[in-house]
Amino acid sequence: MVLVAVALAAAAIVSDDPPSLAHSEAKGVIKERMDLMQGLKDTVKAVTPMFKGKAPYEKAKVKAAGKHIHAHAGADMTELFPKDSLQHPSDALPKIWDDWPDFTSRAKDLKSLGKDLARTAGKSAPEGVTLSPEVAKLLPATATFKKIVKTCTSCHETYRKPW
Ligand code: HEC
């Protein structure tokens, strides 16, 4: 059940593409944060099949994903949201600056979860084996990955225009 939820949430993230090509017009800090977010999406997408039992589990890849997430969250993410930066084609909501402490604390949570993923990537995990969903859900890294995906989606639900 847990894994099904992870798979569904991850699928939602992976299909998280902008509705039109408008985003190619983004400039400055809006473009920088869209690029950062797209990089996170690619990272999540690269490891999702391992947690779904659809690709061999590779510790180094999971560890690298954790490090990437760690490096692009926290202040590295929130500094790309200067006050009232809502220029076209941004999908950010003004609520970000009304609830700035909550917004930044979510970005910080993501940063520490990235570190947890890097740390737990190799724990109890066999290298190069495609895990069954039953086994995959027992891995410490799976629990962390699930939290990461939840952190992405819940921040989007709160602070980004629905697509
Ligand atoms: C602290 C809140 C927050 C967290 C955490 C967060 N995001 Fe975002 N994300 C946003 C906001 C706000 C936008 C809209 C930015 C804009 O359009 O200006 C966004 C936009 C995006 C986009 C669309 C980018 C584009 O080209 O328009 C993708 C993809 C994305 N996020 C993926 C992720 C992934 C994957 C994670 C987790 C690993 C994540 N985000 C974590 C707030 C967050």
UniProtKB/TrEMBL annotation:
Pfam families: Cytochrom_C_2 (PF01322). Gene3D superfamilies: Cytochrome c/b562. The keyword Metal-binding applies. Keywords: Electron transport, Heme, Iron, Metal-binding, Transport. InterPro entries: Cyt_c/b562 (IPR010980), Cyt_c_II (IPR002321), Cyt_c_prime (IPR012127). The keyword Transport applies. This is Cytochrome c556. It comes from Rhodobium gokarnense.
